[in-house]
C-alpha cells in the first residue's frame, strides 16, 4: 500500500462501509431515501412554521431553526457517503477532509446549544408561565438562535488548526464513513496525545455542560408538572416536552459515547454505527418525532397544504 509524507499528501481514501459487497446498491437506495425524507421533512416543518401565524411562538421558532440546521448537518456528510457507495475511487482532498470535519463539528455543536435553548424555553413556559411572555420575546429568541450558530462555528477552530499541522506520513485510508477527528488522528505519524486531550476537553465542555443544563431544566419541569392537580393538565404539559426530550436522548446518547473519551477509538464497527445514528438517524427521525407527537403542528401542516391546494385549484361558476 502506498505511503505518503505530509508534504505530498493531497488526499485521503474514505473506506466508508467496508465489506458491503452485493448489498452496496441497496445500501445506496436506503441512504438516498433517508436523505430525501430528511430534506423533505425538515423543509416541510420549516415552511409550515414560517407560513402559519399560529406557530409564530418561541418554541416553534426554535423547531424551525433546528430543521434548517439538520438540512445543513446532513448535507455535510451524506452526499459524499452516497457518492462513495457508487464510486470505486473513494477519495477526498486533504483540505476537503478538514472542511468536512469543521462543518460537521460546527453544526453538531450548534445543535447542542440549540437543544439547550429549547430546554430553557420549555422551562420558562412551564415553570414560570406568568413571566414567560415578557422574558422570551421574539428579539431574545433571535439572539439566542444566532448565539447558538455563532458559538457552534467557533468551537472546532482550534481542533482543526491542530489537526492541519500534524504530519501524515502513514497510510492515507480513513477507517470511517466520513472525515472526523478520531480517524484522522489515527493516521498521524507523531504523538497526538495533545490533540486527543484538546478534543476531549472541548467536546466534554460542549456536550456534557449542555446535556447537564438540559437535564436540570427537565428535572425542574417534571417537578412543576407533578404539582399540577389535573391529569389532563399534566398530560398537556408533558406532551409539549416529550418530542424535544426524545430528540435530546437520541442525539446526546450517541455523541457522548463517541466524543467524550480519551481513546481514539473503541471499535471501528461501533464508531461507524454511532456515526450513522447521529449523522443520519437523528436528522431523519426529527421531523417524524416533532410532527407525529405534535397535534398543533399536524393541524398547521393540514391547514397549509389545503390552503395551497385551494389556491391552486380553479374556481368554477
State the name of the first-level CATH class: Mainly Alpha
Task: Count the domains.
Answer: 1
Query: What would the CATH topology be?
Result: Rhopdopsin 7-helix transmembrane proteins
**Strand line-up in the sheet with most strands:** 2-1-3
Helical run tally: 11
Order of helices and strands: EHHEHHHHEHHHHH
User: Low-confidence parts, pLDDT < 50 over ≥5 residues?
Assistant: 1-8
Q: CATH superfamily assignment?
A: Rhodopsin 7-helix transmembrane proteins
**Beta-strand fraction estimate:** under 5%
How does CATH name the architecture? Up-down Bundle
Distance between the termini: 76 Å
What is the general shape?
Answer: globular
Indicate the radius of gyration in whole angstroms: 22 Å
Total count of strands: 3
**How much helix, percentage-wise, in residues?**
over 70%
